[in-house]
Amino acid sequence: MKTERLIAVILTDFQYAASCLESMKSSVSLTDRVVILWPDIQTEAEPIWSEHRFGAQKVSVVKGDFRSLLYDALKHFNPSEVAVVEDTVIVTRRWLDGLSQGLKAVPFNSLVVPRSPSIHGVQRVLMSEGAQLRSRGDLSRFAKSFSESRKGLISSERYVCSAVLHMRADFLLSLLPNVSQFSSTLELYLAIENKCNKFVVHESIVYSLFARQVEVEREQSQGTLRHLPLLSACMIVKDEEKFIEKAIESLLSVTEEIVVYDTGSSDRTVELARSLGATVIEGTWRADFAWARNQALSRCSGKWIVWIDADEILECDPVELRRELAFGDDELEGYTTRIKNEVGSGMDTPIYHWATRLFRRSECTFSGAIHETVWSRILDRSAYSKQCNFATIHHFGYLESVMTEKNKAERNLSVASSSKNFRFVEEKKVHEARSYFLSGDLERARLVADEVVYSNALESFRNLAIRVSFEARLGLGEPKQAQEMLAMAMDSSIGLEFQSYMQAMLSMAEARWEDALDALRQVGGGYLDDDGWEIVPEQLLSKQIECYVGLEDYDRAVEVAFNLLASGSFDFHLGRLVEWVERSSTGTLSKLADVVPETKLDLVFAQVLQLKRSVADRVLEEFFVKPTLRVYVLATAGLILKGLDQERARVWTDRIRAAGFEIPGEARSPVGSFTS
Question: CA 348 → CA 265, 312, 548, 568, distances in Å?
Fold first, then answer.
């Protein structure tokens, strides 16, 4: 009977070897052969062979120097594959089959290795604090669950641990003549690692009596590697032809592949995605965001995954991002990324939150029908992540125009109300309350949130519900009831900074402006809460402006408003700023043209058109003194001529003609001329 696989166990201690061999009985087939390599560095005699019973077959024991023993065993049994194993290793049922399947998928000159909780580095299995592995049964059950969730997952690595080394027998035979004597799998690995492609087979798991780590600088790996993609992107979409191109284009420079799961588009979304090189899966919608995202994830092959929506773009330095993913912390499962949510008309202060948008494909999956999260594939917890400071996701889906066009609030509410894919009833209710709040139904948001507030829910869900109920009550004009929620927040684990922010909002609702300013000062320069939502300085400035206007301190209001506008945010209509300026001691808009960011010019001039014509005329006059803005100014002026008095209309008409543009009502619209 031909030997398919040779398992060479390097003996260091008889007691260890006994445990190792015992663990192999359920995983070694009749076509496999186990050989114990017994070191005898004192003798130069021929290797000494002996046979022993091992379950339904025999195990060979050969004594001599390791290199010669391994070479002779490979020649003697002529296997197709070989696994070199330290005797401190405890294997599981599918460890060997998993490695064999992985080896079939990689080039000839490759080394494949398993995962293990006993290893530090890229192969480590992260355990939850509650995981108990006290008996062989515990080991077996954990390994089975771990393997089932990672079938077929393989990743290319620059360095690996050496407790188990699995490769094609012919490849190892070709290497051994150039290998000096070795006394452990580590020394064998160090002798051959530069000649191997190295892969981790994620469904294969072993344990070890000792922690192992290869202490080798990653840059020492010089072999010609066949790398699997470092970074894949996955998306779910439907009828996104207005946004899909920008989203995919933001991914092209940083990812090797983009997988799009389409849930039933009727427009050009699929065509556009494919034209940009994305792999598109034409699927269906099951009212479950995590399920849909996992369909896209299942077609990705990258070591790392980045996920965005069609109304988002990824902003990063591609080189820096890829360097971090390739050489960063090996034990991280993911990175939380800052998400900048544009809201209102686009001039409002963005809302920021952090979420895990980058994660290891082998470790994580999606969970949650709505507001889906990245979850460990096997452990009942969210991904082990750290903040990513080298990438930002820009989200446009909360703009009023997008929310209305796509009916996002109603869609989210439908999913939250109907889905059964929640781990806890309270989790479902929190998402439902947030969806009601987003849709503008504050009364139902309050009612559903209160069900969680006055329950024995987990602290994290209860804290979220307190915040939703608080904001809904403020929106309903119920400050006394909001005060009740604030008191609950102060008795909870909600951060002190956010408690102060809630106190500021309540004080503002009750027109206690000085108290509100004091509370805002307690928040400091910003705050990031446990749920990933961030209070940024721009939000605090916006609240300060409201307070100063409430106190009729227009000088301070204008000063802060100009600072806010210079940062790219402005939570008030331009008409209100003009009013404040006119009530301030300066009474001039001259500074306005200097502080408007170039990225916001379109929005600012769109608001100019909404002003009374006489007010718009004054604003445009202030902007006209800045040469770089004159095209915008003249284009806007051309649209308000009919509403101006005769003298001012003549001034703008002369300026437009002097610049070589046409007047509305003539051959062409001046806007067409200005923008051509």
Answer: 31, 17, 18, 9
How many CA atoms lie within 13 Å of 419's alpha carbon, on the beta-carbon side?
A: 30
**In this model, does residue 75 exceed pLDDT 80?**
yes
433, 443 contact by CB (below 8 A): no
CATH topology agreement for domains 5-220 and 231-406: yes
Domain ranges of the chain: 5-220, 231-406
CA dihedral sign of residues 13, 14, 15, 16: positive
CB 20 within 8 A of CB 89: yes
Q: Are 355 and 347 in contact (CB under 8 A)?
A: no
In the prediction, which pLDDT does 219 show? 33
pLDDT digits (tens, 9 = 90+) for 573-631: 888 999 999 899 977 777 888 888 887 788 888 889 999 999 999 999 988 988 888 88
pLDDT surpassing 90 at residue 48: no
Instruction: Match 């009919």 to its residue by tokens.
Output: 642
How far apart are the C-alpha atoms of 493 and 185, rounded to whole Å?
Answer: 50
* Number of helical (H) and strand (E) elements in the chain, helices listed first: 27, 22
Strand partners, 110: 197
**Percent share of the chain, pLDDT over 90:** 39
What CATH class does 5-220 carry? alpha beta
**Both tokens of residue 458?**
């987990």
Q: What is the C-alpha to C-alpha distance for residues 660 and 293, in angstroms, rounded to an integer?
A: 53
In DSSP notation, 84-120 reads: EEETTEEE-TTHHHHHHHHHHTS-TTEEEEEEBTTB-
Of residues 3, 37, 27, the one with CA closest to residue 187: 37
Distance CA(462)–CA(73), nearest Å, equals 63
452 three-state secondary structure: helix
Please tell me the CATH code under which domain 231-406 is placed.
Answer: 3.90.550.10
Q: Which position has the token pair 């070591």?
A: 303
pTM value > 0.90: no
Q: Provide the residue type at 593 as one letter.
A: A
In the chain, the amino acid numbered 550 is G
Q: Which residues contact 158 (CB under 8 A, 6 or more apart)?
A: 198, 218, 221, 225, 326
Average pLDDT over residues 14-39: 81
d(CA 487, CA 490): 5
Distance CA 192, CA 194 (A): 6
pLDDT at 328 over 70: yes
Measured between alpha carbons, how far is 430 from 448 in angstroms, rounded to an integer? 7
- What size, in residues, is the chain? 676
| Mean pLDDT computed over 29-38 | 86
**453: CB partners within 8 A, 6+ apart:** 462, 465, 466, 469, 485, 488
pLDDT at 345 over 60: no
